Amino acid sequence: MHVKTVPASSLDREYRRHRRSVYAGIFAGYAAYYLVRNNLALAIPDILREYPQHSKADLGWALTGLSIAYGISKFLMGSVSDRSNPKYFLPLGLLLSAGIMFVSGFAKVIYGSLALVITLQIANGWVQGMGWPPCGKTMVHWFSTKEPVKKSL
Length: 153
Fold this sequence. Notes:
Elements: H1 11-35, H2 39-50, H3 56-82, H4 86-106, H5 114-128, H6 132-142
């Protein structure tokens, strides 16, 4: 395996460049989680029109399940993330969540079963909890709390 060495004179510049790149990746990755987090809330009016057997309260249970699963997962996935490579862990959760949202959007037959809607939303909440822990882990490795903050205007 060939390791690229950086001359000492450009080490600081290279480190800052990589750090900006890592930060941009974390920012974009975590922001993408928001695109697939709570889409059911936007779809509820259409679902109620097409599936009148459900009420807002019924579908609210799915949103509650998502929120509870997200909270528990965010806590537990922190431990899993600490033992994982964030480069794979962050996109894995995002891809799983996007897959769940894809199924929810294209397989409309699932809305005939409230239990299936709730189950999918709980699963989405669970994989959504995989978003922040690898971001936090990566930030700790690239940004020190002891370095001075440079103010620039």
